[in-house]
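*** Query protein ***
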Amino acid sequence: MKIQTFIFVHNQNIILDFKQVNKFNELENLKYVFVGAGEIDKIDGLDDVIISRNLPGNIEQYPKLTSFTGWYSLWKNNLVDGDYINLFEYDINILDNFVTEQKKSILNKAGVIGYIPYNIHSYPILGNPIWCQYIVDSIKKNYGIDVISRISLLGNSVQCSMTSNHTFNKKNFENYMKWVEPMIDDIKLSPYSGHDIERSIFLYYTLNKIQNVAIITNIIKHYNFDSHQTQLDINQDVVKETYKELL
């Protein structure tokens, strides 16, 4: 059973910091994926770093899609060959029980694994149109599904997983990318397109009734550093101080 791990980063110094302290080294087949247009002189050519903008067919000209641009580069360039693939943002800490708990879900043949649970009817999920209107409209346009009405039919206890931190088996990763690809041209128009993409993940497995989705709590801590500054309530000075907790 091969598990690949990709960590998506927009600043080369973060990669160097993480490599110095061996962050994420407990995860198998680890590679960093550099997204965006930042400087790469210190990391270009490293065996464990993929420069997304150097790959054919990349969409790095749309940075508001955040880490999804890296997902797209991996998919388009056939760089996913594991049975499972960890797709993680840089601003997380893996807790001590991560490997054990994740392997339990993999042994139970989970097709998608999420780590940040929310009630699917809670306001942050689909209540704020700023974060979801483009994906909602695009799903209607491409698949004829009224997302809000469909989700409203689900039970009050239904959970979904937020942020882009997810693990997929290969089949579901490829199917998700095929499902979302026709909507990229719509989503990329939003200044909050990263939020639309985050919601597209649980909408993929919910609307398509994907079986055996696991949401594991308390094994990842997400710091939500908001690198593209689309959430005005996040104090970037606090982010700089909190960064130390990642090292």
Observations:
- The chain has a mean pLDDT of 93.
